[in-house]
Batch of 3 targets.
Target 1
Amino acid sequence: MKKIISTVLVCALLVCTLLTLAACGKSLSGSYKAELDLLIGKSSVTYEFSPFGKVTVTTNSLGKETVEEGKYELDDDGDEITFTFVNDKGEEVESEYDFATGEENGVKYIKIGLVKYQKVD
C-alpha cells in the first residue's frame, strides 16, 4: 500500500512540475500566414507553432514548396523572437527578429520583423 501511495505522489509531483515549467515559458500556438508580392511573383510563408517551442515554416514561391522544422523562443518581454534551424551542414543557425502580437478587425496576427502574419486556424 505504501508503494502505491508513494508512486501516486511522485507522479502528481512530476505532473505539477511539468505544468509549472510549461506555464513559465512564453509560447505561441496555431498557424500564421503572410501573402507576399515579390518582383518575381507571389509568395506565401506560413509559421505553424507547436507546444514546447517547436515551429514549422512552409514557404511557397514560384510553385515550389519548402518546409523547415526548428525551434523558437520568445524573450522575457515578448518583443523579440529567436528561431533556431539546422542548415545543410548540420549546424544550428539562430536568427533573432522583432516580434509583436495584436488583433485587427477581429483577426489575430503576429509580426515578425516587418512582416505581418494573420492567424489561419
Note: The beta strands are 30-38, 41-50, 54-61, 64-74, 80-86, 92-104, 107-112, 115-119.
Target 2
Amino acid sequence: MTVGQDSLATGKAAETDVKIPDLWQEVRRVYGFPLTMFALAIVPGLNFTYSGHGGPCWFLIPLCFPYVLVFAVIRLFTVRIERFLWFRNFFAATIPLYIGLAFPLSAAATYSLQHTFGLTIPVWTFMKVMISPFPFWYFS
C-alpha cells in the first residue's frame, strides 16, 4: 500500500491533502472593493466619482468595512475545519492592518479631492466612513 492509499484506507487525510489558500488571492477577494474605492478617490482622473455634487462613490464607501466583515463571517462559517485556522489568522492580521492603512489612504484621498475639486473633507471623517461597521450613521 502506498501513502495515499494508506490515508484513504484509514479514513484520515494526510497533512499534504490540506491546500493552503493563496494569500494574495484572498487579499484581492476580500479587500478588492475597499481598495478600489480608495484608488478611485486618490487617482485624480478617476476621483470625479467623488464629486461634491453627489458622486456615486459617496453611496458606496460606507459599505466597504461591512463588506469586509460580512465576507469574513461567511468565510469563517463556511470553510472546512482544516482551513479555519488559516482564515482566522488571516482575518486577525488583515482587519487591523486595513484599519491602520485607512488613515494614510484617507489622507491621500482627501488631499486629492481637495486639489482636484476644492472639496475639503476632514481626513478623520473620510476614514470613519471607510472603517465604520455601521454605515448608516453617514446618511443621518
Note: The first helix runs from residue 3 to 10.
Target 3
Amino acid sequence: MVTAADDTAASLPSRDETRELVRDARALVKALGALERVLDDPESAKVQAALAALEAWRERDLAAVEAGLRAWLDEDRRTRGRRLREGLEAAAAERGLAMAVVGRQPLELRLPPVSVVVDLDADEARVGFAREVLETCPARADRILAARDRAIKTLEGRRWDPAAFHGQLREAWRRAGGRDWVELGRVFPELLFVRQSRRFFQDPSAKNYAPYSRGRFAYDLWRLRRDRALVVDGWRLALGPATGGSTRDKKRVFWLEDDRGRGGWHLTIRFVREEPTDA
C-alpha cells in the first residue's frame, strides 16, 4: 500500500546517520552540563572536554540534514494527492469498494457508506456521514481506511432493528406534538429520550445515558430507506426538505443523503397512516 513516505525522490537521513547525530548531541549536552557545574571553579581538563565537544558538534553537517528534510517535505507535498488517490483506489478495489469523487474543492471522496473530505495542505482527512465528522486522521490511504472502519462501527452500533427504530421515531414524533409535519429539530431530542434504556430511567445518571449523535440519526434514516422499512405497521415515514432561509440554522435542519453521498437539507417529518389495499 502506498504511504506518505513512498515514491518520493528526496531521501531522508538513514537510521545509522540519525543515531550518530543523537549520540553526538547527547555527548554535547553532557559536556555542557559538566561545564555549567564547574564555572564557579573551572578546571582546565573539564573546560577542555567541553570545548572538544563543542568543536566536534560544529563539524557536523547539519545544513545537509536540514536540506534533505526540506527536500523530502517539498516532494511529499507535491506528490501527496497522486499517491493518496492511487493508494486509496488500490485498497478500495481490494475490499470491493467503489470509490468515487464527490467534489474537488475541497477534495471529497465516497467510500461507501461514508464520505472522506481531504485537506492535502494540512495532510488531514475527515471521515463522516451526512456532514457530521466521525473520525479525523492523516491523509494516508491506510489511515483513512482504518478511520472508515471505526466510523462505520460507530454508526452501526451494537444492533439494528429497522422496525423497532421506526417505532421509536414515530413515538418521538408523537411526543413532539405530531399530528402533521413537525420539525426534525424538535423530534430529535424526543428520540434521544425514547431511546434510553430502562436502567437510565431507574437511575438517570451519566453512566447510564446512551449517547446518540446527529450523524447516527441521519445514518439510521438512511438505513430505513436501504432496508425498505419506511412503512411499518401501516405507518409511512415522510421527510420534508428545507427550503429558503430555513437552511441557515443548522440546528433545525439535517443533511440526509443517498447511497452515492448526494443529498439535501431536511426540515420536517411526519407519519401518515396508510389504508390497507385489497390484494
Note: Confidence is low (pLDDT under 50) at residues 1-5.
